[in-house]
Write a structure and sequence with these properties.
six-stranded parallel sheet; about 20% strand
Length: about 300
């Protein structure tokens, strides 16, 4: 009887080990949004029985991120989730995973080789055409179609930064918004501090503007910090960002931020984990998996406060 019991336990452990799955997660960096993105991956992963997550941050170092993915391969993980800072890293990441036959999920940033991804590699992101378009249309509405605009861009080589900046130009080219004029446009690399410095330079140069359109919330908050330090009334400037982070929502409640766009870190994180599990099981997953953006304003912020990142 004792022998049978031990055999049963051994069998149970064997079955459990057979069904255990490990997903390696490499984040390009851990700023406010990407930390929320990682938290979204981890929190959803914890709801799946037998799933283990191994997480790494490349701290903005592309070579380190490649080494992390190579280490995941060496450790024989079952799938890899990677948030690259540079979409041009896609071909290299794809080859590393494809050569090992390991499913790869790109999260948040679209790789440059999107159309060439093998069947077991997919993208989970949000359609950037929605983000900058929703943001800029709302700014246009608040300015009644006329005014001077300064633009704060993310990393120039980041697909989201390029797309959101192009969205701004596309909206301004429409009949309803052609009265808007971009007077300055500079990269602030998604950073609050860089945006603060850039805004200070514009203010010191006496650049005149009616709105600040930033590719993300952290840059919008940096611009706000600089303007408040220079005693500029926030009611006189329309400020817009993207991500609907908790800090951004707090700034909106305080009356400093006028527009943000919810990019659901929780939604992207959960979708990436689900895609990984399906690919491990050899199930079909669409190449592109879109998590929609949503416009957040002072008028509807109450709906979004519980969903803050």
């Amino acid at each position: 009887m004792k022998t049978a019991t031990l055999a049963s336990i051994a069998l149970a452990i064997s079955i459990s080990a057979a069904h255990a799955q490990t997903i390696g997660v490499s984040m390009s960096d851990l700023d406010k949004f990407r930390t929320a993105l990682l938290n979204g991956v981890v929190s959803h992963g914890q709801t799946i029985s037998g799933l283990k997550l191994v997480t790494e941050s490349a701290k903005g170092d592309n070579e380190l991120q490649k080494k992390q993915v190579q280490q995941f391969v060496a450790d024989k993980v079952d799938a890899i989730i990677v948030a690259v800072s540079d979409g041009d890293l896609g071909p290299q990441m794809t080859k590393i995973a494809a050569d090992a036959g390991i499913p790869l999920i790109y999260i948040n940033n679209v790789p440059s080789n999107l159309m060439d991804l093998p069947d077991n590699q997919v993208v989970v992101a949000s359609n950037e055409k929605e983000s900058g378009t929703l943001e800029t249309k709302q700014v246009c509405t608040l300015l009644k179609g006329k005014g001077r605009v300064v633009v704060l861009m993310g990393e120039p080589f980041h697909a989201a930064a390029r797309a959101r900046t192009q969205d701004i130009s596309d909206v301004i080219a429409t009949p309803d918004c052609k009265g808007l004029q971009i007077v300055e446009r500079q990269a602030a690399y998604w950073s609050t501090d860089y945006a603060d410095q850039q805004m200070q330079e514009w203010l010191s140069a006496d650049v005149k503007f009616d709105a600040v359109i930033a590719n993300n919330d952290e840059m919008a908050l940096g611009a706000i910090r600089a303007m408040k330090r220079n005693n500029i009334p926030m009611k006189d400037v329309v400020v817009a960002g993207v991500d609907a982070t908790d800090d951004a929502l707090a700034a909106m409640v305080a009356g400093d931020l006028d527009v943000t766009i919810l990019q659901s870190a929780v939604g992207q994180g959960a979708a990436a984990v689900d895609a990984a599990v399906k690919l491990i099981r050899k199930e079909k997953v669409p190449r592109e998996n879109n998590v929609p953006f949503e416009l957040v304003t002072p008028e509807n912020i109450a709906t979004y406060l519980p969903k803050s990142q």
